[in-house]
Amino acid sequence: MDSPSVLQINSVGDDRVDQRTCLICGDRATGLHYGIISCEGCKGFFKRSICNKRVYRCSRDKNCVMSRKQRNRCQYCRLLKCLQMGMNRKAIREDGMPGGRNKSIGPVQISEEEIERIMSGQEFKEEADNSWSNNGDSDHSSPGNGVSEGNQPSPFSTSSSSRSVELNGFTALRDQYIGTPVSSPYQYLPHLFSYAAHSGLLPPQPRSLDPQSLTLINQLLTAEDLEPLGTPMLIEDGYKVTQAELFALLCRLADELLFRQIAWIKKLPFFCELSIKDYTYLLSSTWQELILLSSLTVYSKQIFGDLANVTSKYTPSDDELHRFSEDGMEVIERLIYLFRKFHQLKVSNEEYACMKAINFLNQDIRGLTNVSQLEQLNKRYWYACQDYTEYKYSHQPKRFPELMMCLPEIRYIAGKMVNVPLEQLPLLFKAVLHSCQTTGVSYE
Length: 444
Known about the structure:
mainly alpha, Retinoid X Receptor, 2 domains, Nuclear receptor subfamily 6 group A member 1, transcription regulation, DNA-binding transcription factor activity
């Protein structure tokens, strides 16, 4: 008998379940467990780890490969990936019995600091005397869990052999003006690509697109304004743009993009199903994420073309370069990564519309009055997007998980950008757009 904690995927038929794969190890998935598509093994491991307040250690580089055959070799990296992929520990019943609570569809937003507290045991501090042990777990025979020396890693830790990010032209840009190289060893984020590289997915099977999925997606597309942005971004050759002028342009762009999101909400097919209060909470919590997603996809030609040309006419001062924050450097790195990821995927308008709706319908936001309805709506578009992607791109069986794994990254970047001082935004955009232009992508 199936566990009641599993949300069965009835909307697309039981024959589709066999085609789904676990986002943690690539094994055959059995449904949604604690918020993400996963197998019974990873579901049980995650539940045991949280209920028993396990604190694991990795004897390697805290970046072990997760696959069906290798998932038991390192419990630390397995739990880390569960958290990175969005498994919701709050959906586990406190009494440890079957069945979940506060189920969440899709990746759960969780900060680096919160993941680090869980992995280091800080989250379980009150019961540390009783739980600071690995004994008793059914995976205790795994050979890769010896205690390692050193600090706990960030949730996006990479192997020691990973190259430091060069940020393309930004390092040279900074050297040019102040003569000192960027010393911080910022590294690329391997956790999104690692799934594609190591998960052993089953070969795609011929299938058809559910008509209901197509209807839902077409309704979302109707609500979208895909016309080019109207904010002027043309500049005369030889003109030198000041920091104030570039900041003003960025503000005008943000205003237009935000206005389009407000208009989009009013056209949504489920607009009448939620209260104005809930829409206010949702928009106030996700508007930066929605703008970022649209800038990286449907408006990327103008952002990485026209706006990049404007930022190239702006020369930062030595003081601006010296005072650029650590948060700003991290945002630059992650934005460049996402740009390359989206350019590699070539996200379609249909996928963009679904990703946007899924991100917007975030039932973890505080103050919402109708969480259950949000959950149902989120699930509706989650499966519509999966249905469409697996049908349209059947030769890319890993495409849908890769798309969904970009959403927590967008949330994280949007949250980090709040910490970047406003006066540093012109330099941040110049660095990102300059670096992305040097990748050889043409938007002419």
